[in-house]
């Protein structure tokens, strides 16, 4: 096999190293879904090429001893790929189980009486969005959070949480979680996806509130209120409190300028992973044909 079989892993490494700084300059909405697609393709590409490499251990079967010289991959590499594949399978199983558990908790919240805005009698400050399979959902806010904010800040906070529902950010977060489970190198990319979800919702809240400073103040006050709470609300699904300082700085800066070349760079790396996976598959097929013929 050529170097192509290792490129998805290299792309994952580059994405991991660049995810944090790149997320700060990407346009939030487009950057979020571009980075999510890149992480899923890099994760799936790593799994696929690991499967190809691990499968070449077949030359160690006694009946196929004569075919060992036809396999251009050292057994150590194939064994490492098999281990990586096994680790990814276990991590993916655990990630899916966590996501299903979270979904069950959210379904219980969706079943509570009330409309798309639910106030919970809880003195601990909290607020979050509860997505639904139908594309709607509801915003849940505790009485403690409402007391911590003034009227304008409440409006900004609610607009932020509703933006999460409209943009289906829960889908991006779930996909990022699965990609990081398939390939642990992509954990920083998963964090960057969470940051871009919040930045996207922040910018939507600015459009509703009409003031970047107001949204920044609401975010800072809400984060401070949560930090002084003795115990986090048991209702929270855990999709908030992401990079508060960076988000406040972005909101207090001038409106972000779209930098298209960053998007194209991420897209190019994604296409590289796709092309490398196809090339590695072609090489693998050639090796299989030779093994069958011999």
Structural class label: mainly alpha
Query: How large is the share of residues in beta strands?
Result: under 5%
Helicity, in percent? 55-70%
Describe the biggest sheet? 3 strands, mixed
Please tell me the overall pLDDT.
Answer: 81
| Largest sheet: spatial strand order | 1-3-2
Instruction: Report how far apart the termini are.
Output: 18 Å
Based on CA atoms alone, the radius of gyration comes out at 23 Å
The rough form would be described as elongated
pLDDT below 50 for ≥5 consecutive residues: which ranges?
A: 232-239
Q: What is the number of beta strands? A: 3
Order of helices and strands: HHHEEEHHHHHHH
Structure annotation, total helices: 10
Number of domains in the coordinates?
A: 1
Model description:
69% of the residues lie in helices and 4% in strands. By secondary structure, the chain is mainly alpha-helical. It has one domain (4-293). It is elongated.
In short:
The protein is mainly α and 294 residues long. The protein has 10 helices and 3 strands.
Labels describing this entry:
294 residues; mainly alpha; three-stranded mixed beta sheet; 4% strand
Q: What topology emerges from the helices and strands here?
A:
Blueprint: H1 7-25, H2 28-55, H3 75-111, E1 117-120, E2 127-130, E3 138-142, H4 143-148, H5 151-166, H6 169-182, H7 187-209, H8 212-228, H9 244-252, H10 260-293
Parallel strand pairs: 1-3
Antiparallel strand pairs: 2-3
Helix pairs in contact: 1-2, 1-7, 1-10, 2-3, 2-6, 2-7, 2-10, 3-6, 5-7, 5-8, 6-7, 7-8, 8-9
């Amino acid at each position: 096999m050529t170097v192509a079989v290792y490129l998805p892993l290299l792309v994952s490494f580059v994405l991991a190293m660049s995810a944090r700084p790149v997320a700060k300059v990407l346009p939030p909405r487009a950057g979020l879904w571009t980075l999510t697609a890149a992480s899923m393709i890099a994760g799936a590409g790593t799994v696929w090429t690991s499967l190809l490499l691990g499968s070449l251990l077949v030359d160690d079967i006694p009946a196929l001893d004569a075919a060992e010289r036809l396999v251009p991959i050292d057994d150590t590499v194939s064994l490492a790929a098999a281990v990586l594949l096994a680790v990814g399978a276990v991590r993916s199983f655990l990630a899916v189980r966590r996501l299903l558990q979270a979904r069950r908790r959210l379904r219980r919240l969706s079943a509570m009486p009330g409309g798309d805005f639910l106030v919970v009698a809880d003195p601990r400050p909290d607020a979050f969005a509860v997505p639904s399979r139908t594309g709607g959902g509801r915003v849940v806010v505790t009485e403690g959070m409402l007391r911590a904010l003034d009227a304008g800040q409440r409006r900004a906070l609610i607009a932020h949480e509703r933006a999460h529902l409209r943009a289906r950010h829960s889908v991006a977060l779930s996909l990022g979680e699965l990609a990081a489970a398939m390939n642990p190198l992509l954990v920083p990319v998963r964090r960057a996806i969470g940051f871009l979800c919040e930045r996207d919702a922040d910018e939507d809240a600015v459009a509703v509130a009409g003031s970047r400073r107001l949204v920044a103040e609401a975010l800072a006050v809400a984060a401070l209120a949560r930090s002084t709470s003795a115990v986090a609300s048991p209702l929270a699904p855990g999709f908030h409190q992401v990079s508060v300082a960076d988000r406040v700085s972005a909101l207090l800066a001038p409106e972000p300028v779209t930098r298209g070349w960053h998007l194209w760079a991420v897209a190019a790396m994604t296409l590289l992973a796709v092309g490398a996976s196809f090339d590695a598959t072609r090489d693998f097929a050639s090796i299989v044909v030779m093994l069958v013929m011999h």
